[in-house]
Amino acid sequence: MLELPLHTGAEHPNLTLVVLSSLLTFLAGLGLATYGDRVRAFVRTLTTDSAE
After folding, report:
1. Where are the domains positioned within the chain?
2. What is the spatial distance between Cα 50 and Cα 52, in angstroms, rounded to a whole number?
3. What span, in angstroms and rounded, lies between the C-alpha atoms of 41 and 52?
4. What are the distances in angstroms from CA 32 to CA 26, 39, 40, 47?
5. What tens digit of pLDDT does each residue of 11-41 get?
6. Cα 26–Cα 31–Cα 37 angle in degrees, nearest 5
7. Residue 46 and which of 1, 9, 19, 28 are 20 to 30 A apart at CA?
8. CA separation (Å) from 8 to 5, 11, 15, 42, 48?
């Protein structure tokens, strides 16, 4: 078992790109979760204003 090292992905050629994209996706998810009500209210005002 010890001769089989775990695959960490450290030898991936674009490791920086993978880490940055996953971090940005995580932060975007946090932002949407935090401000989701405001975004939904803003979209509702846009759709109700355009319907009139």
Report:
1. 2-50
2. 6
3. 17
4. 10, 8, 10, 20
5. 777 878 888 999 999 999 998 889 988 988 9
6. 140
7. 28
8. 9, 8, 10, 42, 50
